[in-house]
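Re: the request from the purification team.
They wanted to know what the chain is likely to look like in 3D before they choose a buffer screen. I agreed to run a prediction and write the result into the notebook, where they can find it.
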Amino acid sequence: MSNAIVATTCGLVEGLAREGHLEFRGIPYAAAPTGESRFLPPRPHPGWTGVRKAQVFGAPAPQELSPVMGVDRIADDCLYLNVWTPAADDRQRPVMVWLHGGGFLSGCGHQMLYHGARLATRQDCVVVTCNYRLGLFGFGNLADALGGDFPAATNIGLRDQVAVLAWVRDNIAAFGGDPACVTLFGESAGGMSVATLLAVPAARGLFHRAIVQSGGGDFVVSRDDAARVASAAIEALGATRGAQVDALVHGEVGTVVRAQRQAVRQTVRRGLRPDTPQFGMTLLPVVDGDFLPVRPIDAVAAGAARDIPLLASVTRDEWNLFVHQPQFAGGRNEKAERLDEERLAQLFERALPGRGGAALARYRQVRGRKDNGLPADLLCWMESDRMFRVPTCRLLDAQAAHQPNVWGAQFDWECPQFGGRLGACHVVDVPFVFGGTDGPAGQFFTGGGQQAGELAQLVMEAWAGFARDGVPRLRAGGGWPRWQDGQVLLLGRETRPGRLFDADLLAFWEFLA
């Protein structure tokens, strides 16, 4: 079986011929952002002569190394994408472009969970995954932090994502895809990126459907907050202003990555609101009045994406992953188990200044306590809503005012690890979307087996069907309600229509818009 050679605008690429599909790894979609270009917007690739081998994944963007997540090397030269296609012919298949998660700090397009072969072959579509710059490199407002000492460029990571979409527009037909039928989808920071790109003028016309998994339209910060966060990292580099600039532009990437640890110790105003503090994930897209003119949720509410069908989903127990993740080391999360009432109240107030006590009382009333539950369960329920469920509701509401094809879903499938403590946690949806429930990572989150495989087939069909015409059809036909009054499809061991949110509890969150 000979490998396939495809012509792109930059030159010929030779991918890998697999059973039933072609796989192209590590295709550059922009010039390497090295040297003076490290913190500049993506530039066109100069191209190459001859045939470039597209058989090895490109290096992930600079970040903390995490071999278990597939990140065992990093480099400035990171702007690569990957393509899975049934055939490089003229079939004009729907194209699905995936943006990975990782809190805008970590991840890459070739993690095991994102392998696109099954989605591409089983649904006859073209799947594209990519790297984009992260952390300070992609979302640090260094220009404002350093004044005239630094190039005035914001939202570099978003600009990388737009460059991926431009590459798809110009090249995907040669891989058997339809450039006029592109769905942008992503999870967590990737889902937040999709929602944000709905508001980016430079992205208009480059994608035609949007799938937001565990995201929302208010994960942005002001220029002032972004500059303050960047300044904390810059100060960690030490030395004089000139030496700091030199360390940023020419220093070893690991040094910059270590310095940005100070950035994630800051607090920002998520959505530009003083009453929704954001911790940990502080290097976010910036409302700069230019590339990203306004908050994405405001742009969507004003009809900026009125021509784009939207599917948005959450997992039922999103925050469980973050509270119980120390168990990934193989032990119990004793910190969560020892959480007492005083500390629980402090954490509620920290997340909801001035509303913490009222929120805790409301969640006790509405959610109650499981028979074998912990105070941490209340924290998980509240944070799942604050970070994911409420933003998803707001995004769906905003788009439904302008577009009839708006759909919601909630994944209820429970991760079997640690005696089920993780529940239907963050990331549990991804193996179903890519059909990877029987792979090592997929088995961790889903347990694998026949029923998980059947749900994966249903989800792949729905996601790819939505990519074709904006309607996520089920095999049996019907059954998936359009978004109205909180109606979604619940995806788990039983698949059925249901509600995304309790109406009374949602009223408590009116300020979060």
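For the purification team: Residues 375-400 form the longest helix (26 residues).
Please add any questions underneath this entry.
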